[in-house]
Each structure stands twice: as C-alpha cells, then as structure tokens.
Amino acid sequence: MRVIALAAVLFLLTVSAAWSSAGAVSGSLTRNAVYASKGPTGHTGSLGSNGPVSHVKTRWRATLAPLPAHASTGSNQFVSLSSISCASRGNCTAVGSYLDNAGHQQGLLLTEKAGHWGVGVEAVLPANAGSDPQVVLASVSCASAGNCTAVGAYTGSGSIYTEDGGGGLLLTEKAGHWAPGVEAVLPASAGSHRYVTLHSVSCASAGNCTAVGRYGDSEWDYNGSRGLLLTEEAGLWKRGDARGGAGADVFSVSCSSDGSCSAVGYHNHYYYEGRNSSDEGGEALLLTKKGATWRRVEVNWPAEGPGGTAELTSVSCTSAGNCSAAGLSHIGVDESEGPRGVLLTEIAGKWHRAVMAKPPKNAHSPGSYWDHYVGLVGISCASPGNCAAMGGYYSGRRQLALLTQQEGKWRRGVGAAVWRGHQTPAGAAISCASPGNCTVVGGYVNAAASWISYSGFLLTEIAGRLGAVVRPPHFPNALDSVSSVSCAAPGTCGAVGANWTSEGPEYGVLLDSTTDPCVVPRLKGNALPRARHRIEARNCFVGTIEHIRSPTVARGHVISQSLRPGRHLAPGTKVNLEVSSGGTG
Q1: What single string gives the DSSP state of each residue in 306-347?
Q2: 528-580 — its CATH code?
Q3: pTM (predicted TM-score)
Q4: What pLDDT was estimated at residue 70?
C-alpha cells in the first residue's frame, strides 16, 4: 500500500495556486543529486503596504534525500518528508517516511551536519510493531544539534488510516544517536481506544519535550476522539493526558522553556459537522501548561456578532507566558460573511481578547461571502509581540495573505503578489528567525492552461521586505511541493518537500537557503545614486538620508555613513547617510 503516494496526491489536490515556474534545471535522477536554483523570478510583494521590495540575494540548494540501502528504487521509490527543525546554521534534522524494498512504509530520519546531509536512518520501532508497520512521522523538534525528538504513528498491520488502529510513536535522539522508538502511553481513562496519531512536538531543552495529537477508535472517529498531551522529562515519556472533551484534536504545541508550553486545536464535533452545518459547531481549544499542570483557557472573543465554529491551527511561544496563536473562526462575525482568521496573543501570562485578521485591502470575491475571509494556517514568533502569520484570502481568486504583529499589535494583512494567469496558492509553513526575517513555503496549481501542473514555492522576507516568489529547484518536467521550513538565521533556512515525474517515483527533497551578509561599502564622497547602488549590491538597505550643508563636499555626495566600512552584518541592515546639500554660501 503506497500511503506515501496517496498523502502526496491529497496534499496537491488541496493546493490550488497562483504562482509561476522559475524554469527547470538539468540533472539526472540519482539518489544523492544536488542541484541549485536559478534564482528568483516573478512578481514580488512586501509586508509593508506599497513598501519597497527586497533585493537581497537568497539562494536555495536542493539535495535528494539520501536513503538507507534497503530503500525501494526505480519507479517504486516513494519518499515523503513532513517536517524539519534547524538548531543552527547547517545543522538540521528532517523526518518522514519511505518505502523499503519489501514495500513496507518505514520512518525516515535525516541529519544535516555543517551543511552536509548524511544517509537517512530507518526509525527503530517499539517491540510490538508488526512486519508491515506503516510508519508516519509528522513532526520533529531539535533543542540543539544532535538532540531532537520526532513523533508520529505506526501500526503492525493494515494501515494507520483504518480501524486497525495505530500507536503513537515517540523517537528521541541524544548526542547524535537515535534511540529505539517508544509507544505513547494513553491516559488510564482511554479504555479500549486503539487509534493514536501525534501531530506536533516541541522541545524546550534536550530530553524535555511535549507532543500533542489525539486518540480514538479509528482515523475517522472524530466524535469520540480525545485530545492527547504527552510530556517528556529528563528523557522519559510520561503517561498521556486527555484534554478537550468529545471530538477533540490538538494540532500544534510550542514550548519556550521546560514546563512552559501552549497547545491549540478544537473540540466538540467541529471537524465534519461544524464545516457543513450551522446546527453543529466546534470550539477553539487553547491549552496552557505551567509546571506540570495543563489548563484550558477560555478564548475571549470580540463582540462583533453571533457565535459559530472555530479552530486554532498553530501556536508559537518565545518565552514563558508570551505566545501567539492563529486559526479560523465564525465566532464574532455574521455567518453570511464567511469564515475569518483569528489571532490570539499572550503577554506576560495573560491571553488577550482575540483579534479578527484583517484581509488585504484588495480582498474581494464574486460573492460577498468571502470578502472578509482570511484562512490562517501558520504562525511564527521571533520575540514577544513580534510575530508573522500566513494563510489564504480571496481577491477574485484565492491568494496568499501575510500578517505582521509588531509590539503586540496586528497589522492589516498584505497579499504576496503572484504570477499572472494561475490560481489559488496554499501556504504550508512559516518560520521567522527574527522580527522581519521570515520564510514562507507552500504549493500551488497552475490551472491557467488546459493542463494542470503542481509546484512548490519559497518566499523570503529580509528586514521587513519580501523578495521574489521562487519555485524550488526541480528536475525538468517534474512536479514539486514544499511542506515545512525552519530558519536558524535571517535568510538561512532548511525546508523539505517532494519532487516527482510522470514515470512514477517520488523523491524527498532537502532544501537549504543561504543569504549573503550585508558587507558595508565605503561610501564617503560617492554621489548619492552610486551610494544607493553600492549599498544594495552588498545586500544592505538604504536607511535614512539626512541632507546637511557642507563647504567641502560637493552637493549630492555622501559626507558620512552610520556604519563602518567592511563590517559584515545581518542581510538587509540599514546604512544611514549624511549627504551634502551644498556650501553655506
């Protein structure tokens, strides 16, 4: 059973997008092939309304995931990479699944050291795993290089998507060595529930992690499922904690320090009934952990209209008591207006009233139902009160929306400009290394012609300015997607995705980006136009320009600069200038 291929198809079918190809690169389909992007192409957007576009050069390199020796080859090769975590520059871990040469779906663990990806390792399963384990690894978190935790699910027979059930899988890496996996221990109240799946994990330090998901009778048991919280302390996983009530699922968790975490999801039948009937609704689930105790936080909704359905999809914490969460809601708006994005912020341990995401100014649709829609699916915070969220909105067609929070205040969303003639991008993940330095990844469908092609995209923000939307490096005539991203520094990120052709095989792709630093040029005496050009050519930004009188420097030439020439600084660093306005006479 090719569960990997099915997962890839389902991902692509949900990604209808409006982006353009950046052109293919040449290369042979070898397992360890490395190929580089030709560079950014297409239109650009900016997080600041009508603001300047980034000229900073970010380059992406792609490596085909090196697989264990017993992996399937040729047309039977199928690899699915789901998550990546980068502890520092060039030191990342990626997880997913692959088919071995017997056709069994195994867990895949990949490690990058000093910019080099090593051969993947098969996840060692608990003793109760059967001969056909059907492993799915969904999330990985690294507290430091070589100290990571990965979570997912496995089963001994059949598929984890059936009533055969599956066990929650917990894998721990210590000092570069992956220990055999352990099965998640369910709460004592779980009874006969057999199906377990874990969605997300976050590690505050080595051996101290939290994983979240759900358990129930089967993959499709959304009425009887319960939210599941698992805690690792000093390398030992404790019995799980059930939260959320009937029909609950916990999607995302973020821990800023040992014992300080937040998790989000939904409960009360929302997944199916809530989306298709106004009679059934779901409630946003917001959980906070302090010490060893989890508690549910009641969301304080804006009083803008009748209630409805809601779910929270993503959370990010930067320090104890300072988190932000994003999701989708009908609560606080008229049901006729369609769903809205919702943003929640915790400051110093207090969750504030929810804020409805404001769509970009050009938001509109053929019917008024989608005019206010902002479907947020990801959020990343670089420091308390400084976050970025992304999702979709409608402007005649579905497009990508980006929202920025500065000093605790959320700004109106802006649309990332897309290539013409295509439809419906879908963001998959966002990661911010510092305020104003984020990377968004996802996919789109080119549906402008009589044929449809699927492509991934990469979008980098440097110092508050967006660069060009880039299609990841890919083989000629290949389809591709990007599903996860992690940034260790501005413009220095890791991402994972897939690359596949009409011949059938699906290849896992490991992506790494590098961005040259701002190298401050010597500008004294340069005419202002030349000074601007030199600043931008060195990956810096032009800052403030002050015009002052000077009897010794010609009008329009640089008198002084704010930064010493030759310094290597973060890409996009601003260089302020004093420019002569002429002599005193």
Answers
A1: ----EEEEEEEEEETTEEEEEEEE-TTS-GGG--EEEEEEEE
A2: 3.30.10.20
A3: 0.86
A4: 95
